[in-house]
Amino acid sequence: MSDESAETPDAPSVSAEDLHDRIRRGERVTLLDVRNRDEFEAWRITGESVEATQITYAEFMAAKARGDLSAFVADLGLGEPVVAVCPRGEVSATVAADLREQGIDARNLAEGMEGWARVYVPREVPGAPDDTTVLQYDRPASGCLSYLVVSGDEAAVVDPLRAFADRYVADAEARGVDLTVAIDTHVHADHLSGVRRLASEAGARAVLPAGAADRGLAYDATLLGDGDEIRMGEVALTALAAPGHTTELTALRLGDVLFSGDALFTDSFGRPDLERGDEGARDLAGTLYDTLRDRLLALPDETLVAPGHRTPESAPNPDENDTYTAGIAAVRDRLRIPDEKSAFVDRVLDSLPPRPANYEDIIPVNLGRESLDDETAFEMELGPNNCAVAADD
Description:
It is a single chain. The chain has 13 helices and 18 strands. It is an alpha/beta fold. It folds into 2 domains: 13-116, Rhodanese-like domain (Oxidized Rhodanese, domain 1, 3-Layer(aba) Sandwich); 121-380, Ribonuclease Z/Hydroxyacylglutathione hydrolase-like (Metallo-beta-lactamase, Chain A), CATH 3.60.15.10. The chain is globular, with a radius of gyration of 22 Å. This is MBL fold metallo-hydrolase. It comes from Halorussus caseinilyticus. InterPro entries: Metallo-B-lactamas, Mito_Persulfide_Diox, POD-like_MBL-fold, Rhodanese-like_dom, Rhodanese-like_dom_sf, RibonucZ/Hydroxyglut_hydro.
């Protein structure tokens, strides 16, 4: 649907940041989403306290044209206050204004789902080594998680997002340190990496797993092998090869903190079909089994998993400053990896959601083989993430 010709009448609005804060506090949130049904089903605002109703803008305006908007709205049974949602916050402003004329406490989500995609929230991860600070950045719209590690007078960022490259630099400067290292745990397929941007504009050293070269990496970077260290300040990040989601994926250990990328989430693990498609998914699922059983889930119980994504089902950890982290023992219990590799592989291949939007275009950009302007890049990664295998119920 198009917002281009919509009027934007005077209607109270709520920012995406304020809406996110309400959801995080567990306040009841009633959303009236006037995007098309397929847009709503593919990607929407979620949360335990969120009650979302979907109608199209055309349905709403048809009821208004018939003169029975009051009955139409009453049949929806909306709780108040209502927040109207559309792609860019334009037609939803009209809907919010019309609802207010019906006596309903309604607000408009400013900038719509595009505004929601710009929410980026940092929280400190407890358990880092002494004199080291770890911030987890959460992008609620996609579940992408990135990390800023500060030690001494240096900072490193793990799995940075291109859309927020300036944010990491500013947050490092606010702490009186220089951002010197930008690391990707693997070649991402769901979002545009910020590593190249930080290398070119902030002078950070670009770091990727050694296997990225085999996938066609086309820009200069330090390549990490299993067991290699990245020293910064008073600490070192140690590489731990963790293939399966991709062939080159490499996790990083910082004391008891494990930056697991897309190899392991707090309640799931990365899908194995984005690099080699259906043909290579079975072999990589077998590799993923070995990585989980023999490497990651075999780490000491005091290990804290700091993943590269959270799923829609993920809950913040109240024991870890409400970050999306979990102790490795709890993750083992949640995942229930079967003893037989074949059973695991079959389960994985039967549990794959739709692939991330535009992944075949995003990968070559992240390898440095193609370029995109910022507006196109931002639009390309809008939508659901879908990097995780569906959780086992």
